Each structure stands twice: as C-alpha cells, then as structure tokens.
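FORM 12-B: Structure-to-Sequence Request
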C-alpha cells in the first residue's frame, strides 16, 4: 500500500504540473524575468500549493500516526550549513538557467527535448555527486 500511495501521489503531482503548465520551462523563465515579459502564473501555482499544504498538515497532525508508518519522521536538524546553502544555490541557479526543477523535469519525460535531456543528465550527475560527497563525511 505504501508504494501504491507514493505512486498515486507522484501521479497526482505530475498531473497537476502538466495541467498548470509548469512543465513548460518558458513559464518558469518568464516568471523569473521580472524586468521583461513577466509571467505571474507560477505565483498562482505556488499559492495553491501553500494553501493545500496548510490544510493538509492541519489534517495530518490530527492523526496519531501516519497511514503507512508506525510514527511520524520529522527532520531534527535546524541549522544552516554550507552544504545546505550550496545545494540550494545550485538548485536555484539550475532552475533559473533551465526552467526545470526535478518534478517538472520528470513530468516532461513523455515529451523529450535536448534541453530536457541536458537537465536530466545534470540532475543525475548532481544526485550521484551528492551521494558520493555525503558518504565521504
């Protein structure tokens, strides 16, 4: 059931990205182009995500435990270190340059393109590098 729930959540997320047009990197780049032809679409998608998350967390925290686990597992670290800040900066730079982030990139796989292939290759390289660096510590 846990795998099925994860699959259905991912499918719903991907459908939401496709329906909202967020799999189109031009929309993201248009949102970041505040001095040019600004496209505010992403603000509405992010606003919808914030409202959904706000309501969802209120409902989830009323439960004694998650549906498919024995307890809630929350992050315990609260500090900001160079690895977190560096990773966030790289993510933001990559998102701004390509218009893709991991969710929309994967959701765009049915319509392949060279920019998408370049994004997926760098995503996999970054994932591999992060795992390699984390095992070194």
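FORM 12-B RESPONSE
SEQUENCE OUT:
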């Amino acid at each position: 059931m846990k795998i099925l729930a994860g699959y259905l959540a991912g499918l719903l997320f991907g459908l939401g990205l496709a329906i909202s047009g967020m799999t189109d990197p031009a929309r993201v780049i248009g949102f970041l182009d505040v001095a040019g032809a600004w496209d505010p679409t992403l603000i509405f998608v992010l606003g919808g995500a914030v409202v959904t998350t706000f309501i969802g967390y209120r409902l989830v925290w009323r439960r004694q435990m998650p549906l498919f686990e024995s307890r809630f597992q929350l992050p315990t670290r609260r500090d900001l270190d160079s690895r977190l800040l560096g990773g966030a900066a790289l993510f933001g730079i990559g998102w701004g340059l390509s218009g893709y982030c991991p969710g929309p990139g994967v959701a765009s796989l049915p319509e392949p393109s060279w920019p998408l292939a370049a994004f997926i290759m760098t995503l996999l390289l970054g994932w591999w590098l992060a795992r390699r660096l984390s095992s070194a510590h």
